[in-house]
Amino acid sequence: EVQLVESGGGLVQPGGSLRLSCAASGFNFDDYAIGWFRRAPGKGTEREGVSCISNMNGGTYYEDSVKGRFTISRDNAKNTVSLQMNSLKPEDTAVYYCNVDPHWGQGTQVTVSS
């Protein structure tokens, strides 16, 4: 059974940092790209792609609004993917989800507010 467990969310002031982690199990982690998505308040069920990391060459993708602020990384030995989020803005407030298509974690809440 595929399991994705996110952690690291919380309340942070604008300009602050958080590091999200996704612990994966139940599949061959090395064989899959891993993505982070988020669902902002008032957006219904819509999830926005935030970042993704390849399984093959470590290539990364970032949504325009997070480029230069967020960094995705993976540790294949520990089956984890992390998302370092710096210079956080109120508009980053959302539930953040780890994704290995078609599987989703339960999400972790990130709130950026003063």
Secondary structure layout plus pairing:
Layout: E1 3-7, E2 10-12, E3 18-25, E4 34-39, E5 48-53, E6 60-62, E7 70-75, E8 80-85, E9 94-100, E10 103-104, E11 108-112
Parallel strand pairs: 2-11
Antiparallel strand pairs: 1-3, 3-8, 4-5, 4-9, 5-6, 7-8, 9-10, 9-11
If you had to describe this structure to a student in words, what would you say it looks like?
Strands 2, 4, 5, 6, 9, 10 and 11 form a seven-stranded mixed sheet that branches. A four-stranded antiparallel sheet has the order 1-3-8-7, with no helix packed on it. β4 (34-39) and β5 (48-53) form a beta hairpin. The chain is an all-beta fold. The chain has strands at residues 3-7, 10-12, 18-25, 34-39, 48-53, 60-62, 70-75, 80-85, 94-100, 103-104, 108-112. Helices cover 0% and strands 50% of the residues. It starts with a strand and ends with a strand.
Helical content band: under 10%
The H-and-E topology, N to C, reads as EEEEEEEEEEE
Report the uncertain regions: none
Number of strands: 11
Please count the helical segments.
0
Global Rg = 13 Å
Name the structural class: mainly beta
Overall 3D form: globular
Q: Strand content of the residues, in percent?
A: over 45%
Q: N-to-C terminal Cα separation, in Å?
A: 40 Å
The averaged pLDDT comes out at 96
Biggest beta sheet summary: 7 strands, mixed
Key terms for this structure?
mainly beta, 11 strands, seven-stranded mixed sheet, 114 residues, four-stranded antiparallel sheet, 50% strand
